[in-house]
Amino acid sequence: MTIETRPVEYRFEGKIYEGTLAIDGRKSGKRPVVMVSHAWAGRTDYEIEAARRLAAAGYAGFAIDLYGKGVVGASNEENQKLMTPLMQDRAGLQARLANALDVAKGLPEADAGNAAAMGYCFGGLCVLDLARTGADLKGVASFHGLFTPPGNTRGNRIKAKVVAYHGFDDPMVPPEQVTALGKELTEAGADWQIHAYGGVMHAFTNKAAKDPAFGTVYDARADRRSWASFMDFLGECFA
Fold first, then answer.
1. Integer Cα distance of 62 and 8 in angstroms
2. Strand 3-12 to strand 31-37: parallel, antiparallel, or no bridges (unpaired)?
3. Environment class of residue 3 by beta-carbon count within 10 Å: exposed (0-12), middle (13-18) or buried (19+)?
4. CA pair distance 139, 208, nearest whole angstrom
5. In the structure, what pLDDT confidence band is assigned to residue 97 with cuts at 50, 70 and 90?
6. Which domains does the chain have, with CATH numbers?
7. Secondary structure, 3-state, the chain
8. How far is Cα 207 from Cα 149, in angstroms, rounded to an integer?
9. Which of 165, 172, 164 is nearest to 211 (CA)?
10. By CB distance 3.0 to 4.6 Å, which of 51, 104, 146, 159 could disulfide with 63?
11. Do the beta carbons of residue 197 and residue 219 sit within 8 Å?
12. 170-213 pLDDT, tens per residue?
């Protein structure tokens, strides 16, 4: 298998962004496209590796950029500074996401009628927001994502299937928010699942997460279980 990656520049409201596309170079023609929305640091090797894994599974993996070309945080403080303006302007965030989805669907290798999205942490919130807007997607998957509702999508019908992979001991998303998300998704008519892993904290898919005091700890078992479930989820979405 030959996994090929290439940068993809795109624009939104006069600003340049740069995503990374990953495909199996031996395969020709269009294939389902899965957008990867980044954690609070920006689009890093972590998200590109997810795109590569998706390519190995037969999809076009597209790691998007929500901050601007070359903009990546190098510390918790920098990451927070980058993420906060978008958290405070969810309508603006949703517009950036919709633009990135259009870019993903427009890629030459992408089957525009078969698109899904996944995201980590902040990116998990992003893909949930994309679903909340009623975007035309087959499915979205949130990995240790934030569940805080945006406040501007109530009453919308969710078209996408939704799955959330959640560490039950995640201090950033307490159990009451899990229940609230389930209620919200039910009211929106979504086909939804929430997988909660006991004894697991935030950032459980990130091998670099080793800070229990901050609430971010890698968990190999939850990482393996969630990815296996995600592959099954995508198979269902694109059946």
1. 9
2. unpaired
3. middle
4. 28
5. very high
6. 3-237 (3.40.50.1820)
7. CCEEEEEEEEEECCEEEEEEEEEECCCCCCEEEEEEECCCCCCCHHHHHHHHHHHHCCCEEEECCCCCCCCCCCCHHHHHHHHHHHHCCHHHHHHHHHHHHHHHHCCCCEEEEEEEEEEECHHHHHHHHHHHCCCCCCEEEEECCCCCCCCCCCCCCCCCEEEEEEECCCCCCCHHHHHHHHHHHHHCCCCEEEEEECCCCECCCCCCCEECCCCEECCHHHHHHHHHHHHHHHHHHCC
8. 28
9. 172
10. 51
11. yes
12. 999 999 999 999 999 999 999 999 999 999 999 999 999 999 99
Contact 204, 197 (CB under 8 A): yes
Residue written as token pair 């697991």: 200
The pair of structure tokens assigned to 37 is 């929305």
Task: For strands 3-12 and 15-24, give the pairing.
Answer: antiparallel
**Is residue 1 very low, low, confident or very high in pLDDT (cuts 50, 70, 90)?**
low
- Which tokens hold the place of 218? 């890698």
pTM of the model: 0.97
Residues paired with residue 111 on neighbouring β-strands, in sequence order: 32
